[in-house]
Specification:
mainly alpha; minor pseudopilin epsh fold; 3-stranded antiparallel β-sheet; 10 helices; 47% helix; globular
Amino acid sequence: MRRREFLITSSVVGTNVLLGSQLVKSTGNLVAAEGGQRMAFTQPPLPYPMDALRPFLSEEQVAFHYGKHHAAYFRNLNNLVEGKPEAQLSLRELVIQAPAGPVFNNAAQAWNHSFYWDCLSPKGGGEPAGALGAAIARDFGSFAEFRAAMSDAGVKLFGSGWAWLAADKDGKLKILALSNAETPLKLGLEPVLTIDVWEHAYYIDYRHERAKYVEAFWGYVNWEFVAKCYAAATG
């Protein structure tokens, strides 16, 4: 096994769950363990083993998505900001402040993917309760109507991108279908839930059938994390 693959695998197996607050309100940068080299931004470990989301996502699918695509955004971003003031920002701050271009694209994709992994759980699924459940019923009529609308946003988004549930400063929920690396953070909204509909998120397991991937997604939603994100947005 090559050293890079070993580092990725061992970090996944040996990690505990990454708390959502580390993404929602992140303020600092991390130091890479690889070779002791200091890097501005480090890919968080998965909050579960790579095979934990089966049958929704196979170990191969997660390994390519997390270990290749997601990792590449962090690697590209670190190369772009090395020795520059942007390297002193948190990843969230950089996403919000960066103008359109390579730095934003890689920073946003790094952040979006980290958020996506936290939106999933091997013990997920069902429906949200509490304040989040009430807000969904208020703003969409029912959970069933919300689920249908968000699924539709993801399935019908042309090309690559993300379906987002986001909250404004008053706690009102909105569904957004955003292309490429775009994120609610750029719109002054707080991300609450996301579905990655880039082909690399599902192609190994679902080929061209994005609708089947989106349908299966709902059985693994980490509503505890999503509720924490909503609480942070409204607190």
